[in-house]
């Protein structure tokens, strides 16, 4: 039995044995945080509110006031305390307003010094102004950033909302600047939205799902025509185009929560009972048994940054990399308590199975492609080489030409008889950041980016995926989506926001010069072009057809990249180190697996 199978077989027993769904996660906490029930309560006794969540919001404002008082009462000492704690955690933190210093990476090695750059460029100044202008306040405090802030856009659709995934680079930019409050508020407010009563045609999403986005609405106060109040209105996908489920939101939330603690030194947020419950609810949703044979997370199309139909249903790489990162981060933050042992066991088993599965089956390079090209098919046996019954014809002509002699990457998706060979940037970069990729694979991914620079970076970093779907494939796979035409938007468009993930990955592998080169290319035109959401054409020459301008995560992505290149050491708040236990389990089981293979019974 391979390690993947070992983990898969161990997990269900340990997990279901203690009925975790009811006992582990759904306990009411000290903070009384059970909004789904609270909402039901109000529906029953007060009738359906005009706006969902109206009642709970009054409570939230109260909570925020309390939070504000805590900060105020400290006369600014909160910031100092936080910095002191940060110093203990990270070793070298200066006053708020300055980012972490030092050129030492997590292994204690000196990171490569970069050529001295200008201290503050005007592009950077503009970006900071724009980022601050995009801040959204709720009950008088900052809670997020609006997705796009173009004053000339008369039809913003949902770009006037705070998207969870879009806020991550904003949050990181603020953290690195020493401005922690907005991130703390964002974490706590989105947590409040986590189990909101939201339905689509009478069906509610799983508890623990984080919304894709939320909006602050001002509505008339019940029973008082002259007064108004603010409410937070989340969208879990029930209003989103295509009704897609935002699987990545909760995973990003966990990643940001960890980064907040690491950067600010304020571990009190992650230690709160309601936050611990929130983490567990996300984990529960992800670790629940289903029909799936694979340790990868099974999702519908459009469940992540690519939030439209693009043929990424099943087990897309981006979700797997975020899932892995969130599992590692959650394990770091969960406070040990009676009753969480099963969860930790399930989590550990999943980590091992997931890393084995992705490293073994998603990886392609020249040699592996050649193996696939020569695959035998229809193998009914326990030790099939071609486990997923991939027909060699899937190795399409573009790939034969494209794969460089040096370098490799993780494919976009793996299903029975299907390998999606497209290169997806975010999934590959976050596999490096989370150590889902081995060190060798991580370097190989960066080698590939370097050798395919004119395809992946060209005139604006970075292609969201490569290559584009064209002709019949575009028609069938996207449903003839006019926004996702070849080399536009999600279908081979170029997204400046991806700069920050590229930068973290490059710094982790001690190759920051690759990211620096990409940032320099972006800098040539991004501000003049008004910070577009994405670029079109094969070489990213045009601002995208329907691209929003003053897109916040393009601005924040650029800022994070700049901040990190200045202080590479700070990138450690985002990456996960290779876990020694996982590594051990993998190598032990590989050895065992080999012995087993010799004796395998072939039907
Ligand atoms: C688009 C992107 C999505 C992003 C949203 C708001 O729908 O595909 O990833 O979160 O815009 O910017």
From TrEMBL:
Alphabetized GO MF terms: endo-alpha-N-acetylgalactosaminidase activity; sucrose alpha-glucosidase activity
Among Pfam families, the record links this protein to: Glyco_hydro_100
For this protein, the record's InterPro entries field holds: 6-hairpin_glycosidase_sf, 6hp_glycosidase-like_sf, Glyco_hydro_100
Q: Describe the reaction catalysed, as an equation.
A: Hydrolysis of terminal non-reducing beta-D-fructofuranoside residues in beta-D-fructofuranosides
Q: Which UniProt keywords apply?
A: Carbohydrate metabolism, Glycosidase, Hydrolase
Gene Ontology terms describing biological process: sucrose catabolic process
Q: Which GO terms describe its cellular component?
A: chloroplast
Q: What class of enzyme is it?
A: hydrolase
Instruction: Give the EC number(s) under which this enzyme is classified.
Output: 3.2.1.26
Q: Which family does it belong to?
A: Belongs to the glycosyl hydrolase 100 family.
Tell me, in a sentence or two, what this protein's role is: Invertase that cleaves sucrose into glucose and fructose.
The molecule here is called Alkaline/neutral invertase
* Organism the protein comes from: Brachypodium distachyon (Purple false brome)
Its gene is LOC100842262
């Amino acid at each position: 039995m391979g390690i993947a199978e070992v983990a898969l077989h161990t997990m269900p027993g340990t997990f279901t044995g203690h009925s975790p769904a009811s006992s582990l996660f759904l306990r009411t906490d000290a903070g009384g945080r059970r909004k789904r029930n609270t909402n039901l309560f109000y529906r029953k006794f007060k009738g359906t509110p005009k706006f969902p969540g109206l009642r709970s919001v009054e409570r939230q404002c109260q909570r925020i006031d309390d939070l504000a008082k805590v900060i105020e009462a400290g006369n600014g000492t909160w910031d100092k305390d936080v910095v002191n704690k940060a110093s203990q955690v990270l070793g070298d933190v200066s006053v708020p307003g300055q980012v972490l210093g030092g050129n030492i990476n997590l292994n204690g090695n000196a990171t490569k010094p970069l050529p001295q750059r200008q201290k503050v460029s005007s592009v950077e100044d503009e970006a900071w102004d724009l980022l601050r202008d995009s801040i959204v306040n709720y009950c008088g405090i900052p809670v997020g950033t609006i997705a796009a802030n173009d004053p000339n856009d008369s039809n913003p659709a949902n770009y006037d909302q705070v998207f969870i995934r879009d806020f991550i680079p904003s949050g990181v930019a603020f953290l690195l600047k020493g401005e922690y409050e907005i991130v703390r508020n964002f974490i706590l407010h989105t947590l409040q939205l986590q189990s909101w009563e939201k339905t689509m045609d009478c069906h509610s999403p799983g508890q623990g799902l984080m919304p894709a986005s939320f909006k602050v609405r001002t509505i008339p106060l019940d029973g008082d025509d002259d007064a108004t109040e603010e409410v937070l209105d989340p969208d879990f996908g029930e209003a989103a185009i295509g009704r897609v489920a935002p699987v990545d939101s909760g995973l990003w939330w966990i990643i940001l929560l960890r980064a907040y603690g690491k950067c600010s030194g304020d571990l009190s947020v992650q230690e709160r009972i309601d936050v611990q419950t929130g983490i567990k609810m996300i984990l529960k949703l992800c670790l629940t048994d289903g029909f799936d044979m694979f340790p990868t997370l099974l999702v519908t199309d459009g469940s992540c940054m690519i939030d439209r139909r693009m043929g990424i249903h099943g087990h897309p790489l981006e979700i797997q990399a975020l899932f892995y990162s969130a599992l590692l981060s959650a394990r770091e933050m969960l406070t040990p308590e009676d009753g969480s042992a099963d969860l930790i066991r399930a989590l550990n088993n999943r980590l091992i199975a997931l890393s084995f599965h992705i490293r073994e089956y998603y990886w392609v390079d020249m040699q592996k492609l050649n193996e696939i090209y020569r695959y035998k098919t229809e193998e009914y046996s326990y030790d099939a080489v071609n486990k997923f019954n991939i027909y060699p014809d899937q190795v399409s002509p573009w790939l034969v030409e494209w794969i460089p002699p040096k370098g490799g990457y993780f494919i976009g998706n793996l299903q029975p008889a299907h390998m999606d060979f497209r290169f997806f940037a975010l999934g590959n970069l976050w596999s490096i950041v989370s150590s889902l990729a081995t060190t060798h694979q991580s370097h190989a991914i960066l080698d590939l980016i370097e050798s395919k620079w004119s395809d992946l970076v060209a005139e604006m970093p970075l292609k969201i995926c490569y290559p584009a779907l064209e002709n019949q494939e575009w028609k069938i796979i996207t449903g003839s989506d006019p926004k996702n035409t070849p080399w536009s938007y999600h279908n081979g468009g170029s997204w400046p926001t991806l700069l920050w993930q590229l930068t973290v990955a490059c710094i982790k592998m001690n190759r920051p010069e690759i990211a620096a080169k990409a940032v320099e290319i972006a800098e040539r035109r991004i501000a003049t072009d008004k910070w577009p959401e994405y670029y079109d054409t094969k070489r990213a020459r045009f601002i995208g057809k329907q691209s929003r301008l003053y897109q916040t995560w393009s601005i924040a992505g650029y800022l994070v990249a700049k901040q990190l290149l200045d202080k590479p050491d700070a990138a450690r708040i985002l990456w996960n180190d290779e876990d020694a236990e996982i590594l051990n389990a993998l190598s032990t089981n590989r050895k065992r697996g080999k012995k087993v293979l010799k004796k395998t019974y072939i039907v």
